[in-house]
Design goal:
This protein is mostly beta strands. Strands 18, 19, 20, 21 and 22 form a five-stranded antiparallel sheet that branches. Strands 1-29-28-27 form a four-stranded antiparallel sheet, with no helix packed on it. A hairpin with a 6-residue loop joins strand 23 and strand 24. The longest helix has 6 residues. The chain is globular, with a radius of gyration of 20 Å.
Length: 352
């Protein structure tokens, strides 16, 4: 399939809210079906809206008060197995709050610093846990009833200056194939002194230097395997199997790199020119590669494909959060973004 050079992007939903919020998520909260839009507010309240194209977004249908600080990160996952899809929230006071069946199930003080990252990790048996990271360099894996393990990156990194304080910039849980062809779940963590840490079952199994500070990550298939093997994108140790999940690494300089076979590409995949805040992958219809969606310190959504810029949508302000979901039930994912001016947009990449 020949890839297009430029893809048009249409806005199919647009609204603004009077509430200040830091993060959005699209998912099914406390339910197995139906889409909700969740906004994590600066006032510590999660506001939940029904999310279809003709929704009335003037008032949320449900509010969840964390009784904590400004919400920095949230996710939806059926962690407790008591009811459908719990809501899990991390805030600026280091508090983790789990809502089950619309009620607070537990509140845990994990840190004196802000929880800036939150992921769900699964072990080989399929058991889930919450993984958080904070500004002080601590990564914790917890369940509502207990802490499973904790890593302080300040105790892991031996090559830092004694006065340097390590903080976690971003987290990603991902299933990767090792050199023996075995797939396992890993946690990737980046820090403020240009390291990428690969964690498995509470242990740092590998730390590698990155070309710059990595501020955003996502998994997908972004580079044709033949390009990796023929040197167009140079990877030490190589490997060209399509079974290998790739991880896009967005940096504070705007450069984007690819992690493949546990190695970071020497060459840039693309460059957004400004600091990157978030990356996400989006499948291409009938194509072997994924779109790479990029937001950062600029008022637009940037879309890359095979290392080339193929689309852009100008937004009213910098984008502070992004998610993907099929909101019009056509079998294809749309892009939902929120901006610093409290606006929310749902965007659709057109095939024709």
């Amino acid at each position: 399939m020949k890839l297009k050079e430029i893809y048009n992007i249409n806005c199919i939903v647009s609204f603004s809210t009077k509430y200040k919020f830091n993060v959005l998520l699209v998912g099914s909260a406390f339910s197995q079906s139906g889409l909700n839009l969740l906004l994590g507010g600066e006032d510590g309240i999660v506001r939940i809206y029904e999310f279809v194209q003709k929704s009335d977004f003037t008032q949320p249908k449900l509010t969840l008060e964390t009784k904590g600080g400004s919400i920095q990160t949230l996710t939806v996952h059926d962690l407790t197995k008591f009811y459908n899809n719990d809501v899990i929230v991390g805030d600026s006071c280091g508090m983790l709050t789990v809502f089950c069946n619309r009620q607070i199930l537990c509140r845990s003080s994990l840190s004196d610093d802000s929880i800036n990252c939150l992921q769900i990790d699964k072990d080989d048996a399929g058991n889930s846990c919450i993984v958080t990271a904070d500004d002080s360099g601590c990564i914790s894996a917890v369940l509502p009833s207990q802490e499973l393990w904790r890593i302080n990156l300040n105790n892991v990194i031996m090559l830092k200056e004694p006065s340097q304080q390590v903080s976690v910039k971003c987290l990603l849980t991902v299933n990767l194939m090792d050199q023996a062809g075995q797939r396992s779940n890993y946690i990737l963590a980046t820090d403020n002194i240009q390291h990428l840490h690969i964690i498995r079952q509470g242990l740092v199994v590998m730390t590698t230097k990155t070309p710059s500070i990595i501020t955003a990550m996502c998994s997908g298939h972004f580079v044709d395997s033949e390009k990796i093997s023929d040197g167009s994108v140079k990877v030490e140790g190589g490997g060209n199997s399509k079974d290998h999940t790739q991880v896009a690494l967005g940096s504070a300089t705007g450069a984007i790199y690819i992690l493949h076979n546990f190695m970071v590409t020497e060459d840039e995949y693309a460059n957004a020119k400004y600091p990157i805040r978030q990356l996400a992958s989006l499948p291409v219809s009938d194509g072997p590669l994924d779109f790479l969606l990029c937001t950062g310190n600029f008022n637009s959504l940037q879309v890359y494909l095979d290392g080339k810029s193929v689309g852009q949508y100008t937004t009213p302000d910098w984008i502070n959060s992004m998610d993907t979901a099929d909101i019009d039930n056509d079998g294809k994912l749309e892009i939902v973004v929120s901006c610093l001016d409290n606006s929310v947009l749902a965007l659709k990449i057109l095939d024709t």
